[in-house]
């Protein structure tokens, strides 16, 4: 009973934890997919005419949502004297509308109340000298809506003594929460051609086109179909966030490995049970062998006993793990305040392929744990035991 219960708990924990981790990873992936442009086309200064012509054709395509952007490194200084580095991104009106639309969708997906301050309305269009700041960046600088912030060009810090660096005063129009930690910690958006106009020759300045697809998961296939052009760099949302997704994959792999090892330890208890059982029944088995019970039949009987004992735990663990996974997938468990933590709930995503692999792996290990000791005892001569 203890061995069966241990297998039941280990299988249930293995499935539920991996379902929850997959649900959390998918939640992060959806947020990245919603807020990040699916494809970014960046023209280098030495870009060929063919590359520039391709970019112009992409901007004219009606099946794609496109907008021009510019970005550059800045050092931000609040009026209180706080400093913070950031990457300023300038978007045109269409790009800002798309950004706000996706932020609004993310807000509506939350189970709690929607923050109406994040909903789009025409008055939210950025004017001259107005910026949007991520909530974590605003907290680190002590900024609120309506505050002034000074943007300093990083290369200005290398100027000669007595030469003032290039600066520009900007007003925070809105503080934005996107539910993405990396984005909220460095988000600094301004209207293209409305702010930082004098920074056109900044060494860190980059220009290009942001592209959104109907299905963002096909970004890699679309990039491959476009081919390559000299001086044109095309990156997908997955490539730009490869470090994040690799860390999530590695975390899932490590935790899954340790859970599998703990399940292996729990499953090995069946081997111990079978060894003890066969040791106690040595004389009875020997008498049955003398009366005509074959060695193959002996192996079959006791292997079946081990499979039944472990099968109850495996089957119960699979059923309970699937039920918990389906419940958490339909009703994520709210455990933390939504407006404080990025992942305030415990979501899950049921993976039937993982469940099948778990069933096959556990069954194979169980079979080996029951078959090995049965086979060793069946090979011992009955006369040796009876003596």
In short:
The chain is of the alpha+beta class and 387 residues long.
Strand order of the largest sheet: 2-3-7-4-6-5
Beta-sheet strand percentage? 15-25%
Number of structural units classed as domains: 2
Radius of gyration: 31 Å
Helical residue percent band: 40-55%
Count of alpha/pi helices: 12
Series of secondary-structure elements, N-terminal to C-terminal:
HEHEEHEHEEHEEHEHHHHEEHH
Largest sheet: 6 strands, mixed, barrel
- Tell me how many strands there are: 11
Rounded mean pLDDT is: 81
* Overall 3D form: elongated
**In whole angstroms, how far apart are the ends?**
33 Å
List low-confidence stretches: none
Q: What structural class is derived from the secondary structure elements?
A: alpha+beta
Structure description:
The chain has helices at residues 2-35, 49-60, 93-109, 135-141, 181-186, 219-226, 237-240, 242-280, 282-290, 295-330, 352-378, 382-386; strands at 39-43, 65-78, 83-91, 130-134, 148-152, 167-176, 188-191, 206-212, 232-236, 333-334, 345-346. The chain is α+β, with helices and mostly antiparallel strands. The protein has 2 domains: 2-27 and 245-386, no CATH class; 65-212, no CATH class. The strands form 2 sheets. It has a 6-stranded mixed β-barrel. A two-stranded antiparallel sheet has the order 10-11. Helix 8 runs antiparallel to helix 10 (295-330). The two termini are 33 Å apart. The model has no long low-confidence stretch (mean pLDDT 81).
Question: What keywords describe this structure?
Answer:
single chain, 387 residues, alpha+beta, 2 domains, two-stranded antiparallel ribbon, 12 helices, 18% strand
